[in-house]
Amino acid sequence: MFYGFLSTVLSEPLSLLLSVMYTWNHKYTHRLLKKVNPNFHTCYKGENHSLSESFFFFPLLYRSTNFAFSLVLLIGCYSAILIPAYFPSDQVHLLNRSANLLSGPCQPLWCLNHLKPLSCSADLFDIPVFVQENRPVPWDLAPPLGLQGSEKHLALALASLPESGLPQSLRRGSCRRCMVVGNGGVLYGSHLGSHIDQYDIIIRYVLNNAPVSGFERDAGSRTTIRLIYPEGAPHSANQYKKTTVVTLVVFKSLDLDWLTSVITKKPLSFWSKMWFWREVVDDIPLSPENFRILHPDIIRKTGQVLEKYSLKQGNMVPTLGASAVVMALQLCDQVSLAGFGYDMQHPAARLHYYESIRMDAMKAQVVHDVSAEKLFLRDLVAAGAVTDLTGAL
Question: Which sequence ranges are marked TM in the entry (predicted)?
Answer without folding.
Answer: 6-25, 67-87
